Amino acid sequence: MADTYFISYAGADRPWAEWVAWHLEESGHSTVLDVWDWDTGDDFVQRMDEGLRRADAVVALLSTSYFERGRWTQEEWSAVVARRDRLIPLAVEPLVGVDVPAMLAARIRKNLHGLDEKAAVEALRTAVNGNRRPTERPAFPGNTPEVPEESVVPHGPKPPLPGGTDGTGESGVWNVSRRRNRDFSGRETQIAQLRDGLPADRHSVVALHGMGGIGKSQIVLEYAYRFAGEYDLVWWIDAEQSDQIPVHYTELADRLGIALKEAGAEHNARTLLTALRGRRRWLIILDNAEDPEQVERWLPEGSGHVLITSRNPNWRRLARPMSLDVFTRADSLAYFKNRVPSTTEDEADALAGELGDLPLALAQAADMIEKGTHAGLYLRLLRENTRILREGEDPDYPVSLAAAVGIAAGNLADEHPDAAALLRLTAFLGPDPIPTDWLVNARARLTTIPAHPDELTWMRSTLEPLRRYSLVRIDGGAFQVHRLTQAVLRDQVDGVQAEAISDDVAAVLAVVAPGDPQDPADWPAWASMVSHLGSRHIDVTHRPELRRTLCDAIHFLIRSAQPKAAAELAATLRDAWTTEVGADDADVLTCMQYLGHATADLGDLRGARPIIEDAFNRRRRTLGDDDPDTLKSANDLAAILGGLGASREALVMYREILASRRRLLGDDHPDTLLSASNFAGSLYTSGDVVAARELEKDVLTRRRRLRGDDHPETLRSAIQLGDSLHQLDEVTDAHRLLRETWERCRTTLGDDHPVSLSAARSLGIVLKDLGRHDEARTIIENALARSRRVHGEDHPDTSRVMYALARVLHDVREDQEARRVLVDTIASQRRVQGPDHGETLLSMNQLAISLGTLREFEEARRLLEEVLDRRRSGFGEEHPETLRTIYNLALILHEMRCSREAAPMLEHVLAVRRRTLGPEHKETSITVNALATVYKRMGMHRQAQKLTGKKGTKRGFRKKSP
Predict the structure, then answer these.
(1) At what angle do helices 359-370 and 401-415 cross, to 10 degrees?
(2) CATH code of domain 413-512
(3) Cβ-based burial of 138 (10 A; exposed 0-12, middle 13-18, buried ≥19)
(4) Is the pTM of this model over 0.85?
(5) What is the pLDDT of the chain when averaged over all its residues?
């Protein structure tokens, strides 16, 4: 009976996958093989799920690569095991020492490796069909059975047994003298692209191009060994000297027996090319070919393949070009793990980052570490002196990285001195892409780049030689130089040259205008600018022409949620400029203010306060109380005071700052709107939620008109208004606004931005109160994971999300888990914000509610009494949060049969709520029901009925605490 088999394999084992699938189909079965059945653009996960459901069994081709972390193969076999479907494990290489998962290790598997093709076919058929007892006497093992003729299947000629029938991997005619790289890892995507670009029985030419040391030859070498069984002839030619190609062809012609000794190399080369036209299954490798025009006349034709490696990308007319980039970070880590297992993942990650994931550089580093240099020491030496790039040997690379770059740069200087000068200049910028507009706009100020005959086209004509040597990577309107190429080039520049180049780099950066550091639309330009301002190889600190740009760069880092980088840059500039111009200089005070702001954003409010107070006092003394910069310092100081729990002091300051800004700047100025929004937030905290809502509505309307719906300040206003609407029981409107705002935040700022996390937290709480607990929990848990990663465990923003999660957990009756979360939250808040902070008290109040649900009434009572004392002292008797604490304490007393103590407390809460919220408000109604329940327990049924107007039902403790 014909079955359908899903072929599960790692990319490195594609030859085995095709071989197995072909033989299964030859036997009358159907197969699902991604490279045969799935199209470009298909949803991989969807096609995998469909294939697994359709298949009668999964054939798993086990190898070292199959069990690497992060591969989809784990999803494939684990899905089969989970559903108890049939799994056929076939080992295609020895698995000694491989960490085979326990669920697979216990399964009997067949070995295909180490067999000749006939034996492998028989092993495959036995694995699929099962063992059968013979019906006749088994034949003598020495007899060779006849092999039936090959049948035709839809996928072309039968793939040969991977690795060749003799297990060497070599085809009939083979001159590849370089051994297979036993440390080769990664690059599976590129190998697959090569395989797809070289279809069987079709003439194909692929040119793999990229910078020196990026691993072009290594990929082609691996391809030659991996797919050797596909070819009858594989011939490797060193094509760097194109005039020597005919000589190499003559050697091949001689191997094939068609060379004439008395004829010259060119004649024999032509004879070979003619012969190749009539042959199939050949692979010619032209390694390190640089000039397409010189190579064109020697490109073979016919039903075979040509692989070219080159620095030069200009092969499109002759071949299918394939650009090669550096390793992915995952590939770099895998390489280090395989080559030097003693290196920790953190060490490998740091090395890969410093080496720019360049394969040659990684190989040199691995060699040094293997020879006894500790990874940490190598990293330190690399940062201190690039001469280490000359050290370390690897037999798979002919020269060191420093030599490779030096040779290319030397040739460039001889042929194109202007291009060489541009390359030296860019070596002192950062390793990120460099917009060409920067250099065009600064051209008149650049002294180290020679004049060009046509200044209008100098950028394009100067970049072209760099591209041809693969010393730059051009993408749209920018180009990029690898960090190690930059390092080698800097090492070749003397002190006088370096000083002149530094002046030119400063001139380039000085003419750049990235835009508004507060506007997300301009953040990509600012990110590019900051990466180059932060280059370690030019001191931008002491260049007056860059001061304004540097201050704006700090502002960008703050607004784009990079407070650590902002604080580091601000502190560096403040210290340097204070020495130069004094602590009262305007730019120094700007850095001081930004340092305080960034420190607060990092969660260190106590550390931020003296920094902001110093800036505020200096500005008042030197600029006056009404100067816009003084008011900025005042605003930040008020925010820090509020964050530290001094809410009354913050409210007074915000009111005064808002009045000053309205008078000096007008109602629509961004600084005025910031003050109005901050004042609204302070009103909310103080308990005047109605006034907060009305003020924030006005701010949101103005910000939408002036800055657009997606500006971060507009989004902050929308979140703040949503919170006020929710607090005032306008839950439907709050949900609509917060849902829309959250989506805008994610689109504009990304999921990890603090504003996005704030929106997620507020939306989650609203969803909780709407009874949509699953959705609320998903959103809040996701926000918590992100906040922990972005801010850390002790940041106030993280504590706010933990508090929100605890409220959801309480609603879904997971109070033990809520208790655990809240204990951690309160410990963090006490350390960071203090025991009297409003948010600390909120968490303590919520913990008491969960303790009450767990019937730990004594501990709940003690906690609520502590919270009540602190709230009365800090907020007053009629603050909404004070009333909530009194209400919750009354409920606990009621559960403890202390109804006579609970009743007057609830009567007080009800009187205040009727007066401040009105008789129809949700919290007023809940208080009425709670008091009626207490009256009934006290035997005061007439008072209870009068209060509610009906008999009512007993209120359970599980109901929401207002």
Answers:
(1) 140
(2) 1.10.10
(3) exposed
(4) no
(5) 85
